[in-house]
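User: C-alpha coordinates for this complex, please. No commentary.
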Amino acid sequence: MTRRLFISYFENEKDILNATRAARDNNYEILDVFTPYAVHGLDDAIGLKPSRLPWVCLGLGLLGAIAKLWYQVWTSATSWPVNVGGKPLRSIPAFVPVTFEIMVLFAGVGTVLTFIIISKLRPAKKPKSLYKRVTDNRFALVLVQSDASFDVKSASEIFASFNAVEFEERLQKEEN
Amino acid sequence: MADNYSILRKPLILGNKTYSDVTHDVCAPFEKKSSIAWWITFFAALSMLIVGIVAVTYQIQTGIGTWGLNNTVGWAFDITNFVFWIGIGHAGTLISAILFLFNQKWRTSVNRSAEAMTIFAVICAGIFPIIHMGRPWLAFWVIPYPNLRGPLWVNFRSPLVWDMFAIGTYFTISLVFWYVGLIPDLATIRDRTKSKIKKFFFRFFSLGWNGSNRTWSRYETVYMLLAGLATPLVVSVHTIVSWDFATSVIPGWHTTIFPPYFVAGAVFSGFAMVLTLMLIVRTVFHFEEYITIKHIESMCKIIIATGGMVGLAYATEFFIALYSGNPYEKFAFINRALGPFAWAYWIMVFCNIVIPQFFWWKKIRTNMILVFILSIFINVGMWFERFVIITISLSRDYLPASWANYIPTSVEIATLIGSFGLFFTLFLLFARFLPMISIGEIKGVLNYGKNSHGGSK
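Assistant:
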Protein backbone atom coordinates (compact mmCIF):
# COMPACT_ATOMS: atom_id res chain seq x y z
CA MET A 1 0.00 0.00 0.00
CA THR A 2 1.23 3.45 -0.72
CA ARG A 3 0.42 6.57 1.13
CA ARG A 4 0.61 10.18 0.21
CA LEU A 5 2.86 12.43 2.23
CA PHE A 6 2.74 16.16 2.58
CA ILE A 7 6.08 17.76 3.39
CA SER A 8 6.67 21.34 4.47
CA TYR A 9 10.19 22.73 4.77
CA PHE A 10 11.29 25.30 7.30
CA GLU A 11 14.50 27.17 7.82
CA ASN A 12 14.84 27.50 11.54
CA GLU A 13 14.16 25.91 14.87
CA LYS A 14 11.49 28.30 16.08
CA ASP A 15 9.36 27.82 12.95
CA ILE A 16 9.56 24.04 12.98
CA LEU A 17 8.56 23.93 16.65
CA ASN A 18 5.58 26.20 16.14
CA ALA A 19 4.54 24.43 12.94
CA THR A 20 4.74 21.02 14.60
CA ARG A 21 2.58 22.19 17.48
CA ALA A 22 0.10 23.65 14.99
CA ALA A 23 0.03 20.36 13.07
CA ARG A 24 -0.92 18.54 16.23
CA ASP A 25 -3.53 21.15 17.13
CA ASN A 26 -5.08 20.67 13.70
CA ASN A 27 -5.12 16.89 14.18
CA TYR A 28 -2.81 16.12 11.31
CA GLU A 29 -1.03 12.79 11.46
CA ILE A 30 2.67 13.59 11.88
CA LEU A 31 4.85 10.88 10.35
CA ASP A 32 8.08 12.40 11.55
CA VAL A 33 10.09 15.60 11.63
CA PHE A 34 13.53 15.72 10.06
CA THR A 35 16.08 18.13 11.47
CA PRO A 36 19.79 18.89 11.04
CA TYR A 37 20.38 18.73 14.79
CA ALA A 38 18.57 17.62 17.92
CA VAL A 39 15.90 20.25 18.45
CA HIS A 40 14.93 20.34 22.10
CA GLY A 41 11.21 20.47 22.69
CA LEU A 42 10.36 18.72 19.46
CA ASP A 43 9.56 15.45 21.24
CA ASP A 44 6.88 17.24 23.24
CA ALA A 45 5.61 19.00 20.14
CA ILE A 46 5.18 15.70 18.30
CA GLY A 47 4.05 13.88 21.40
CA LEU A 48 6.86 11.31 21.51
CA LYS A 49 7.21 9.34 24.72
CA PRO A 50 10.64 9.30 26.37
CA SER A 51 12.86 6.51 25.12
CA ARG A 52 13.04 3.26 27.10
CA LEU A 53 16.75 2.87 26.34
CA PRO A 54 17.79 3.69 29.93
CA TRP A 55 16.16 0.41 31.01
CA VAL A 56 18.13 -1.46 28.38
CA CYS A 57 21.26 0.23 29.70
CA LEU A 58 20.45 -0.72 33.28
CA GLY A 59 19.70 -4.32 32.35
CA LEU A 60 22.85 -4.77 30.30
CA GLY A 61 24.96 -3.14 33.00
CA LEU A 62 23.59 -5.49 35.64
CA LEU A 63 24.07 -8.45 33.33
CA GLY A 64 27.71 -7.50 32.73
CA ALA A 65 28.38 -6.92 36.42
CA ILE A 66 26.80 -10.17 37.59
CA ALA A 67 28.42 -12.24 34.85
CA LYS A 68 31.86 -10.80 35.52
CA LEU A 69 31.58 -11.14 39.28
CA TRP A 70 30.57 -14.78 38.87
CA TYR A 71 33.41 -15.35 36.40
CA GLN A 72 36.01 -13.93 38.77
CA VAL A 73 34.76 -16.02 41.68
CA TRP A 74 34.64 -19.11 39.49
CA THR A 75 38.15 -18.69 38.05
CA SER A 76 39.73 -17.69 41.37
CA ALA A 77 37.97 -20.09 43.74
CA THR A 78 36.64 -23.03 41.71
CA SER A 79 38.39 -23.63 38.40
CA TRP A 80 41.98 -23.27 39.61
CA PRO A 81 42.23 -21.81 43.12
CA VAL A 82 45.58 -20.10 43.63
CA ASN A 83 46.60 -18.81 47.03
CA VAL A 84 47.89 -15.28 46.47
CA GLY A 85 49.51 -13.81 49.57
CA GLY A 86 47.20 -15.78 51.86
CA LYS A 87 44.19 -13.80 50.75
CA PRO A 88 40.76 -15.45 50.71
CA LEU A 89 39.86 -17.16 47.44
CA ARG A 90 36.56 -15.32 47.21
CA SER A 91 38.10 -11.89 47.78
CA ILE A 92 35.07 -9.94 46.67
CA PRO A 93 36.46 -6.41 47.34
CA ALA A 94 39.38 -7.14 45.02
CA PHE A 95 36.92 -8.18 42.32
CA VAL A 96 35.04 -4.86 42.39
CA PRO A 97 37.21 -2.86 39.93
CA VAL A 98 37.00 -5.37 37.10
CA THR A 99 33.30 -5.94 37.77
CA PHE A 100 32.74 -2.21 37.45
CA GLU A 101 34.69 -1.96 34.20
CA ILE A 102 32.76 -4.81 32.59
CA MET A 103 29.48 -3.32 33.78
CA VAL A 104 30.32 -0.06 32.02
CA LEU A 105 31.54 -1.89 28.93
CA PHE A 106 28.37 -3.98 28.59
CA ALA A 107 26.04 -1.08 29.35
CA GLY A 108 27.79 1.34 26.97
CA VAL A 109 28.41 -0.87 23.98
CA GLY A 110 25.11 -2.72 24.43
CA THR A 111 23.06 0.47 24.58
CA VAL A 112 24.66 1.81 21.41
CA LEU A 113 24.08 -1.46 19.56
CA THR A 114 20.46 -1.52 20.74
CA PHE A 115 20.04 2.06 19.56
CA ILE A 116 21.47 1.22 16.14
CA ILE A 117 19.21 -1.81 15.78
CA ILE A 118 15.95 -0.25 16.94
CA SER A 119 16.56 2.87 14.87
CA LYS A 120 17.01 0.58 11.85
CA LEU A 121 20.46 1.95 11.15
CA ARG A 122 23.11 -0.25 9.61
CA PRO A 123 26.45 0.24 7.89
CA ALA A 124 26.30 1.32 4.25
CA LYS A 125 22.52 1.71 4.39
CA LYS A 126 21.09 4.05 1.80
CA PRO A 127 19.30 6.67 3.88
CA LYS A 128 15.58 6.11 3.65
CA SER A 129 13.37 9.01 2.53
CA LEU A 130 16.03 11.66 2.72
CA TYR A 131 14.53 15.12 2.50
CA LYS A 132 16.27 18.03 0.88
CA ARG A 133 19.11 19.52 2.94
CA VAL A 134 17.86 18.20 6.28
CA THR A 135 21.41 17.23 7.19
CA ASP A 136 22.51 20.78 6.50
CA ASN A 137 20.11 23.62 7.22
CA ARG A 138 16.50 22.60 6.63
CA PHE A 139 13.76 21.18 8.79
CA ALA A 140 11.10 18.97 7.22
CA LEU A 141 7.70 18.35 8.74
CA VAL A 142 6.21 15.21 7.19
CA LEU A 143 2.46 14.67 7.43
CA VAL A 144 0.48 11.67 6.27
CA GLN A 145 -2.54 12.43 4.14
CA SER A 146 -4.55 9.93 6.08
CA ASP A 147 -7.89 10.35 4.37
CA ALA A 148 -9.61 12.17 1.56
CA SER A 149 -10.44 15.09 3.83
CA PHE A 150 -6.78 16.16 3.84
CA ASP A 151 -6.79 19.46 2.07
CA VAL A 152 -3.38 20.32 0.69
CA LYS A 153 -4.36 23.91 0.12
CA SER A 154 -5.50 24.64 3.65
CA ALA A 155 -2.47 22.79 5.07
CA SER A 156 -0.17 24.89 2.91
CA GLU A 157 -1.86 28.00 4.21
CA ILE A 158 -1.41 26.97 7.83
CA PHE A 159 2.27 26.18 7.41
CA ALA A 160 2.98 29.17 5.21
CA SER A 161 2.03 31.27 8.21
CA PHE A 162 4.97 29.64 10.03
CA ASN A 163 7.36 30.70 7.29
CA ALA A 164 7.44 27.40 5.43
CA VAL A 165 9.70 27.89 2.44
CA GLU A 166 8.66 24.96 0.30
CA PHE A 167 5.99 22.26 0.04
CA GLU A 168 6.24 18.85 -1.49
CA GLU A 169 4.00 15.85 -2.00
CA ARG A 170 5.39 12.35 -2.16
CA LEU A 171 4.10 8.85 -2.52
CA GLN A 172 5.64 6.39 -0.16
CA LYS A 173 5.36 2.66 0.20
CA GLU A 174 4.06 1.83 3.61
CA GLU A 175 6.26 -0.31 5.74
CA ASN A 176 5.52 -3.49 7.64
CA MET B 1 12.90 37.58 17.92
CA ALA B 2 15.54 35.63 16.13
CA ASP B 3 18.33 38.13 16.52
CA ASN B 4 17.87 38.82 20.18
CA TYR B 5 20.13 37.37 22.72
CA SER B 6 20.52 38.04 26.36
CA ILE B 7 22.82 40.85 27.31
CA LEU B 8 23.97 38.75 30.25
CA ARG B 9 25.47 35.92 28.29
CA LYS B 10 27.61 36.43 25.24
CA PRO B 11 26.96 34.08 22.34
CA LEU B 12 29.10 30.95 22.32
CA ILE B 13 29.75 31.13 18.62
CA LEU B 14 30.72 34.47 17.14
CA GLY B 15 29.99 35.94 13.73
CA ASN B 16 26.18 35.44 13.58
CA LYS B 17 26.46 32.08 11.87
CA THR B 18 23.57 30.40 10.12
CA TYR B 19 23.22 26.62 9.95
CA SER B 20 24.77 26.34 6.53
CA ASP B 21 27.63 28.62 7.56
CA VAL B 22 28.45 26.12 10.29
CA THR B 23 28.36 23.18 7.90
CA HIS B 24 30.49 25.05 5.42
CA ASP B 25 33.06 26.35 7.92
CA VAL B 26 33.59 23.04 9.68
CA CYS B 27 33.82 21.08 6.43
CA ALA B 28 36.18 23.60 4.82
CA PRO B 29 39.47 22.16 6.15
CA PHE B 30 38.94 18.71 4.65
CA GLU B 31 37.19 19.77 1.45
CA LYS B 32 40.12 21.81 0.22
CA LYS B 33 43.55 20.55 -0.64
CA SER B 34 45.83 20.25 2.36
CA SER B 35 47.82 23.35 3.12
CA ILE B 36 51.60 23.35 3.03
CA ALA B 37 51.57 23.86 6.80
CA TRP B 38 49.60 20.61 7.17
CA TRP B 39 52.07 18.69 5.02
CA ILE B 40 55.06 20.09 6.91
CA THR B 41 53.61 19.21 10.32
CA PHE B 42 52.45 15.84 9.02
CA PHE B 43 55.90 14.91 7.78
CA ALA B 44 57.47 16.16 11.00
CA ALA B 45 55.07 13.98 13.01
CA LEU B 46 55.59 11.03 10.70
CA SER B 47 59.37 11.33 11.05
CA MET B 48 59.01 11.27 14.82
CA LEU B 49 56.79 8.21 14.51
CA ILE B 50 59.39 6.48 12.34
CA VAL B 51 62.08 7.22 14.94
CA GLY B 52 59.83 5.54 17.50
CA ILE B 53 59.11 2.54 15.26
CA VAL B 54 62.82 2.00 14.71
CA ALA B 55 63.51 2.26 18.45
CA VAL B 56 60.70 -0.13 19.40
CA THR B 57 61.69 -2.62 16.71
CA TYR B 58 65.27 -2.58 17.96
CA GLN B 59 64.09 -2.94 21.55
CA ILE B 60 61.81 -5.87 20.81
CA GLN B 61 64.51 -7.58 18.76
CA THR B 62 67.24 -7.09 21.36
CA GLY B 63 65.36 -7.01 24.63
CA ILE B 64 64.55 -4.72 27.52
CA GLY B 65 68.29 -4.46 28.20
CA THR B 66 68.36 -1.68 25.63
CA TRP B 67 66.63 0.48 28.23
CA GLY B 68 68.37 2.07 31.20
CA LEU B 69 66.42 -0.03 33.71
CA ASN B 70 68.23 -2.02 36.37
CA ASN B 71 67.33 -4.34 39.24
CA THR B 72 66.32 -1.43 41.44
CA VAL B 73 64.66 0.88 38.95
CA GLY B 74 62.42 -1.57 37.11
CA TRP B 75 59.90 1.00 35.95
CA ALA B 76 61.01 4.33 34.58
CA PHE B 77 60.51 5.97 31.20
CA ASP B 78 58.03 3.46 29.85
CA ILE B 79 55.59 3.56 32.76
CA THR B 80 56.06 7.33 33.06
CA ASN B 81 54.99 7.66 29.45
CA PHE B 82 52.10 5.27 30.01
CA VAL B 83 50.70 7.25 32.93
CA PHE B 84 51.37 10.53 31.13
CA TRP B 85 49.42 9.53 28.01
CA ILE B 86 46.53 8.01 29.94
CA GLY B 87 46.30 11.25 31.90
CA ILE B 88 46.21 13.29 28.69
CA GLY B 89 43.23 11.28 27.57
CA HIS B 90 41.19 12.12 30.64
CA ALA B 91 40.53 15.73 29.69
CA GLY B 92 38.78 14.56 26.53
CA THR B 93 36.34 12.46 28.52
CA LEU B 94 35.88 15.22 31.05
CA ILE B 95 34.91 17.63 28.28
CA SER B 96 32.69 15.18 26.43
CA ALA B 97 30.98 13.55 29.40
CA ILE B 98 31.23 15.51 32.62
CA LEU B 99 30.73 18.95 31.06
CA PHE B 100 27.81 17.47 29.11
CA LEU B 101 26.13 16.30 32.32
CA PHE B 102 26.73 19.74 33.84
CA ASN B 103 25.13 21.28 30.75
CA GLN B 104 28.20 23.36 29.91
CA LYS B 105 27.34 24.31 26.37
CA TRP B 106 30.75 25.72 25.54
CA ARG B 107 32.03 22.15 25.34
CA THR B 108 30.43 21.75 21.90
CA SER B 109 33.25 23.63 20.18
CA VAL B 110 36.00 21.46 21.58
CA ASN B 111 34.49 18.10 22.45
CA ARG B 112 35.05 16.36 19.11
CA SER B 113 38.77 17.15 18.99
CA ALA B 114 39.17 16.47 22.69
CA GLU B 115 37.56 13.03 22.31
CA ALA B 116 39.81 12.28 19.34
CA MET B 117 42.73 13.34 21.51
CA THR B 118 41.56 10.88 24.18
CA ILE B 119 41.48 7.99 21.75
CA PHE B 120 44.91 8.77 20.32
CA ALA B 121 46.40 9.32 23.77
CA VAL B 122 45.05 5.96 24.98
CA ILE B 123 46.57 4.29 21.90
CA CYS B 124 49.94 5.88 22.76
CA ALA B 125 49.56 4.83 26.38
CA GLY B 126 48.63 1.26 25.56
CA ILE B 127 51.84 0.69 23.65
CA PHE B 128 54.08 1.15 26.70
CA PRO B 129 52.89 -1.65 29.00
CA ILE B 130 52.92 -3.97 25.99
CA ILE B 131 56.49 -3.22 24.94
CA HIS B 132 57.50 -3.26 28.60
CA MET B 133 56.47 -6.91 28.71
CA GLY B 134 59.61 -7.62 26.73
CA ARG B 135 57.84 -10.34 24.80
CA PRO B 136 54.91 -8.39 23.38
CA TRP B 137 53.83 -11.31 21.21
CA LEU B 138 52.57 -12.91 24.43
CA ALA B 139 50.60 -9.82 25.42
CA PHE B 140 47.35 -11.75 25.08
CA TRP B 141 48.29 -13.67 28.24
CA VAL B 142 46.85 -10.79 30.27
CA ILE B 143 43.41 -11.68 28.94
CA PRO B 144 41.61 -14.43 30.86
CA TYR B 145 40.83 -16.94 28.12
CA PRO B 146 40.35 -20.73 28.34
CA ASN B 147 43.82 -22.12 27.75
CA LEU B 148 45.62 -25.46 27.77
CA ARG B 149 47.71 -24.56 30.79
CA GLY B 150 45.14 -25.75 33.28
CA PRO B 151 43.24 -23.53 32.42
CA LEU B 152 45.38 -21.10 34.36
CA TRP B 153 43.56 -17.83 34.91
CA VAL B 154 44.90 -14.34 35.48
CA ASN B 155 45.06 -13.13 39.07
CA PHE B 156 41.98 -10.96 39.45
CA ARG B 157 43.36 -9.54 42.68
CA SER B 158 46.21 -7.84 40.84
CA PRO B 159 45.98 -4.11 40.02
CA LEU B 160 47.83 -4.82 36.77
CA VAL B 161 44.92 -7.01 35.65
CA TRP B 162 42.47 -4.33 36.77
CA ASP B 163 44.48 -1.91 34.69
CA MET B 164 44.17 -4.04 31.58
CA PHE B 165 40.39 -4.12 32.00
CA ALA B 166 40.21 -0.41 32.83
CA ILE B 167 42.25 0.70 29.82
CA GLY B 168 40.45 -1.72 27.51
CA THR B 169 37.03 -0.51 28.60
CA TYR B 170 38.14 3.11 28.54
CA PHE B 171 39.41 2.82 25.00
CA THR B 172 36.29 1.02 23.79
CA ILE B 173 33.83 3.38 25.45
CA SER B 174 35.76 6.47 24.28
CA LEU B 175 35.76 5.16 20.74
CA VAL B 176 32.04 4.35 20.85
CA PHE B 177 31.22 7.73 22.39
CA TRP B 178 33.24 9.51 19.72
CA TYR B 179 31.68 7.49 16.92
CA VAL B 180 28.13 8.02 18.16
CA GLY B 181 28.82 11.75 18.23
CA LEU B 182 30.13 11.57 14.68
CA ILE B 183 27.21 9.75 13.04
CA PRO B 184 25.02 12.82 12.27
CA ASP B 185 28.04 14.75 11.01
CA LEU B 186 29.10 11.87 8.81
CA ALA B 187 25.63 12.00 7.27
CA THR B 188 26.03 15.73 6.67
CA ILE B 189 29.27 15.12 4.81
CA ARG B 190 27.74 12.20 2.91
CA ASP B 191 25.06 14.54 1.58
CA ARG B 192 27.56 17.24 0.68
CA THR B 193 30.53 15.52 -0.81
CA LYS B 194 30.99 15.17 -4.55
CA SER B 195 33.77 12.62 -4.38
CA LYS B 196 32.59 9.04 -4.99
CA ILE B 197 35.12 7.43 -2.70
CA LYS B 198 34.22 9.78 0.13
CA LYS B 199 30.53 9.22 -0.49
CA PHE B 200 31.07 5.48 -0.22
CA PHE B 201 32.95 5.71 3.09
CA PHE B 202 30.67 8.28 4.63
CA ARG B 203 27.59 6.34 3.58
CA PHE B 204 29.10 3.23 5.13
CA PHE B 205 29.82 4.87 8.46
CA SER B 206 26.81 7.19 8.70
CA LEU B 207 24.55 4.11 8.96
CA GLY B 208 21.77 5.59 6.83
CA TRP B 209 21.18 8.53 9.16
CA ASN B 210 18.37 10.71 7.81
CA GLY B 211 17.79 13.27 10.56
CA SER B 212 14.52 11.74 11.74
CA ASN B 213 13.39 13.19 15.03
CA ARG B 214 12.54 9.74 16.38
CA THR B 215 16.15 8.76 15.87
CA TRP B 216 17.40 12.07 17.25
CA SER B 217 15.31 11.54 20.35
CA ARG B 218 16.82 8.11 21.01
CA TYR B 219 20.22 9.42 20.03
CA GLU B 220 20.05 12.09 22.70
CA THR B 221 19.09 9.45 25.28
CA VAL B 222 22.02 7.26 24.23
CA TYR B 223 24.37 10.22 24.38
CA MET B 224 23.20 11.06 27.88
CA LEU B 225 23.61 7.45 29.01
CA LEU B 226 27.10 7.24 27.55
CA ALA B 227 28.04 10.47 29.29
CA GLY B 228 26.67 9.06 32.54
CA LEU B 229 28.72 5.89 32.07
CA ALA B 230 31.90 7.62 30.95
CA THR B 231 31.95 9.92 33.96
CA PRO B 232 32.54 7.26 36.65
CA LEU B 233 34.62 5.33 34.12
CA VAL B 234 37.17 8.10 33.68
CA VAL B 235 37.50 8.44 37.44
CA SER B 236 37.91 4.68 37.79
CA VAL B 237 40.58 4.46 35.12
CA HIS B 238 43.08 6.78 36.72
CA THR B 239 42.15 5.48 40.14
CA ILE B 240 43.13 2.01 38.98
CA VAL B 241 46.30 3.35 37.37
CA SER B 242 47.21 4.91 40.72
CA TRP B 243 46.56 1.54 42.42
CA ASP B 244 49.34 0.05 40.30
CA PHE B 245 51.53 2.07 42.65
CA ALA B 246 49.46 2.49 45.81
CA THR B 247 48.92 -1.24 46.43
CA SER B 248 52.69 -1.82 46.51
CA VAL B 249 54.86 -1.14 49.56
CA ILE B 250 57.39 1.29 48.06
CA PRO B 251 57.76 4.49 50.15
CA GLY B 252 56.18 7.37 48.28
CA TRP B 253 53.75 5.04 46.50
CA HIS B 254 51.90 3.34 49.32
CA THR B 255 49.44 6.12 50.12
CA THR B 256 45.67 6.48 50.09
CA ILE B 257 45.82 9.95 48.52
CA PHE B 258 46.88 8.48 45.20
CA PRO B 259 43.50 7.99 43.47
CA PRO B 260 42.15 11.56 43.82
CA TYR B 261 45.64 12.96 43.31
CA PHE B 262 46.07 11.03 40.06
CA VAL B 263 42.62 11.88 38.74
CA ALA B 264 43.12 15.60 39.39
CA GLY B 265 46.56 15.43 37.82
CA ALA B 266 45.18 13.63 34.79
CA VAL B 267 42.52 16.26 34.18
CA PHE B 268 45.09 19.00 34.76
CA SER B 269 47.56 17.59 32.24
CA GLY B 270 44.82 16.71 29.79
CA PHE B 271 43.47 20.24 29.73
CA ALA B 272 46.96 21.56 29.10
CA MET B 273 47.19 19.26 26.09
CA VAL B 274 43.70 20.26 24.90
CA LEU B 275 44.79 23.90 25.08
CA THR B 276 47.99 23.20 23.17
CA LEU B 277 46.08 21.39 20.43
CA MET B 278 43.10 23.75 20.28
CA LEU B 279 45.28 26.84 20.00
CA ILE B 280 47.00 25.27 17.00
CA VAL B 281 43.71 24.07 15.49
CA ARG B 282 41.93 27.41 15.81
CA THR B 283 44.78 29.28 14.19
CA VAL B 284 45.68 26.83 11.43
CA PHE B 285 42.10 25.99 10.43
CA HIS B 286 40.64 29.45 11.14
CA PHE B 287 38.18 28.33 13.80
CA GLU B 288 38.54 31.56 15.81
CA GLU B 289 34.79 32.15 15.72
CA TYR B 290 34.04 28.65 17.03
CA ILE B 291 36.83 28.17 19.55
CA THR B 292 36.64 31.66 20.97
CA ILE B 293 38.69 33.43 23.59
CA LYS B 294 35.90 32.54 25.99
CA HIS B 295 36.53 28.82 25.41
CA ILE B 296 40.23 29.23 25.97
CA GLU B 297 39.56 31.21 29.15
CA SER B 298 37.20 28.55 30.50
CA MET B 299 39.84 25.90 30.00
CA CYS B 300 42.45 28.09 31.68
CA LYS B 301 40.13 28.38 34.68
CA ILE B 302 39.77 24.59 34.87
CA ILE B 303 43.56 24.43 34.84
CA ILE B 304 43.76 26.81 37.79
CA ALA B 305 41.28 24.64 39.71
CA THR B 306 42.86 21.28 38.93
CA GLY B 307 46.34 22.75 39.32
CA GLY B 308 45.30 23.85 42.79
CA MET B 309 44.18 20.30 43.59
CA VAL B 310 47.49 18.93 42.36
CA GLY B 311 49.38 21.48 44.46
CA LEU B 312 47.31 20.55 47.49
CA ALA B 313 48.10 16.89 46.88
CA TYR B 314 51.85 17.59 46.71
CA ALA B 315 51.66 19.49 50.00
CA THR B 316 49.51 16.85 51.70
CA GLU B 317 51.80 14.07 50.57
CA PHE B 318 54.82 15.85 51.92
CA PHE B 319 53.14 16.79 55.17
CA ILE B 320 51.86 13.28 55.83
CA ALA B 321 55.28 11.84 55.08
CA LEU B 322 56.89 14.10 57.67
CA TYR B 323 54.03 13.78 60.16
CA SER B 324 53.66 10.00 59.90
CA GLY B 325 56.85 9.32 61.83
CA ASN B 326 57.70 6.62 59.30
CA PRO B 327 61.42 7.13 58.58
CA TYR B 328 61.26 5.48 55.16
CA GLU B 329 58.35 7.59 54.03
CA LYS B 330 60.03 10.72 55.39
CA PHE B 331 63.26 9.85 53.63
CA ALA B 332 61.48 9.20 50.33
CA PHE B 333 60.11 12.73 50.28
CA ILE B 334 63.24 14.51 51.46
CA ASN B 335 65.08 12.52 48.81
CA ARG B 336 62.62 13.74 46.18
CA ALA B 337 63.18 17.38 47.04
CA LEU B 338 66.88 17.31 47.89
CA GLY B 339 68.28 14.06 46.45
CA PRO B 340 70.04 13.39 43.16
CA PHE B 341 66.81 13.84 41.20
CA ALA B 342 65.90 17.13 42.89
CA TRP B 343 66.06 18.90 39.53
CA ALA B 344 63.15 16.78 38.30
CA TYR B 345 61.16 17.47 41.45
CA TRP B 346 61.64 21.23 41.18
CA ILE B 347 60.78 21.26 37.46
CA MET B 348 57.57 19.51 38.47
CA VAL B 349 56.80 22.01 41.25
CA PHE B 350 57.59 24.99 39.06
CA CYS B 351 55.54 23.83 36.07
CA ASN B 352 52.56 22.46 37.98
CA ILE B 353 52.20 24.87 40.88
CA VAL B 354 53.78 28.15 39.81
CA ILE B 355 52.86 28.23 36.10
CA PRO B 356 49.05 27.78 36.49
CA GLN B 357 48.96 30.82 38.80
CA PHE B 358 49.58 33.04 35.79
CA PHE B 359 46.09 32.15 34.59
CA TRP B 360 44.55 34.22 37.37
CA TRP B 361 45.14 37.28 35.18
CA LYS B 362 42.66 37.89 32.41
CA LYS B 363 45.34 39.58 30.34
CA ILE B 364 47.33 36.38 30.28
CA ARG B 365 44.28 34.16 29.71
CA THR B 366 43.32 36.17 26.65
CA ASN B 367 46.81 36.27 25.17
CA MET B 368 46.87 33.19 22.97
CA ILE B 369 50.64 33.03 22.58
CA LEU B 370 51.20 33.16 26.33
CA VAL B 371 48.51 30.54 26.97
CA PHE B 372 50.16 28.29 24.41
CA ILE B 373 53.58 28.62 26.02
CA LEU B 374 52.21 28.11 29.54
CA SER B 375 50.24 25.03 28.43
CA ILE B 376 53.44 23.46 27.14
CA PHE B 377 55.10 24.10 30.49
CA ILE B 378 52.27 22.22 32.19
CA ASN B 379 52.61 19.30 29.78
CA VAL B 380 56.28 19.09 30.64
CA GLY B 381 55.58 19.45 34.35
CA MET B 382 53.04 16.66 34.38
CA TRP B 383 55.40 14.34 32.55
CA PHE B 384 57.95 15.06 35.26
CA GLU B 385 55.38 14.42 37.98
CA ARG B 386 55.08 10.82 36.86
CA PHE B 387 58.84 10.56 36.45
CA VAL B 388 59.32 11.85 40.00
CA ILE B 389 56.79 9.48 41.51
CA ILE B 390 57.98 6.41 39.64
CA THR B 391 61.72 6.74 39.28
CA ILE B 392 62.76 8.57 42.43
CA SER B 393 60.75 6.29 44.72
CA LEU B 394 62.21 3.19 43.12
CA SER B 395 65.79 4.40 42.94
CA ARG B 396 66.10 4.69 46.73
CA ASP B 397 63.86 2.37 48.71
CA TYR B 398 64.45 0.51 51.99
CA LEU B 399 67.91 -0.97 51.49
CA PRO B 400 70.70 1.53 50.80
CA ALA B 401 72.72 -1.38 49.42
CA SER B 402 70.29 -1.72 46.54
CA TRP B 403 70.04 1.97 45.69
CA ALA B 404 70.73 2.73 42.09
CA ASN B 405 70.75 5.56 39.65
CA TYR B 406 68.76 5.65 36.46
CA ILE B 407 69.77 7.21 33.17
CA PRO B 408 67.48 6.84 30.16
CA THR B 409 69.06 5.42 27.02
CA SER B 410 68.67 6.81 23.53
CA VAL B 411 66.20 3.99 22.78
CA GLU B 412 63.90 5.14 25.57
CA ILE B 413 64.08 8.77 24.48
CA ALA B 414 63.42 7.74 20.88
CA THR B 415 60.38 5.74 22.04
CA LEU B 416 59.02 8.80 23.84
CA ILE B 417 59.56 10.90 20.70
CA GLY B 418 57.88 8.16 18.71
CA SER B 419 54.80 8.24 20.93
CA PHE B 420 54.46 11.97 20.31
CA GLY B 421 54.91 11.25 16.61
CA LEU B 422 52.12 8.67 16.70
CA PHE B 423 49.84 11.04 18.60
CA PHE B 424 50.35 13.96 16.22
CA THR B 425 50.21 11.79 13.10
CA LEU B 426 46.84 10.40 14.16
CA PHE B 427 45.57 13.85 15.12
CA LEU B 428 46.63 15.39 11.82
CA LEU B 429 44.97 12.58 9.88
CA PHE B 430 41.82 13.15 11.92
CA ALA B 431 41.99 16.87 11.09
CA ARG B 432 42.36 16.02 7.42
CA PHE B 433 39.45 13.61 7.04
CA LEU B 434 36.84 14.24 9.72
CA PRO B 435 34.99 17.29 11.09
CA MET B 436 37.01 18.61 14.01
CA ILE B 437 34.01 20.40 15.46
CA SER B 438 30.67 18.78 16.08
CA ILE B 439 28.48 20.27 13.34
CA GLY B 440 25.21 19.01 14.80
CA GLU B 441 25.92 20.19 18.32
CA ILE B 442 27.15 23.62 17.25
CA LYS B 443 23.91 24.20 15.35
CA GLY B 444 22.07 23.45 18.56
CA VAL B 445 23.86 26.17 20.52
CA LEU B 446 23.58 28.91 17.90
CA ASN B 447 21.34 31.83 18.64
CA TYR B 448 20.16 31.77 15.06
CA GLY B 449 16.53 30.80 14.57
CA LYS B 450 15.51 30.57 18.21
CA ASN B 451 12.90 32.30 20.30
CA SER B 452 14.00 35.39 22.15
CA HIS B 453 14.24 33.44 25.39
CA GLY B 454 16.77 31.26 23.76
CA GLY B 455 15.10 28.02 22.90
CA SER B 456 12.16 25.82 22.51
CA LYS B 457 9.74 26.41 25.31
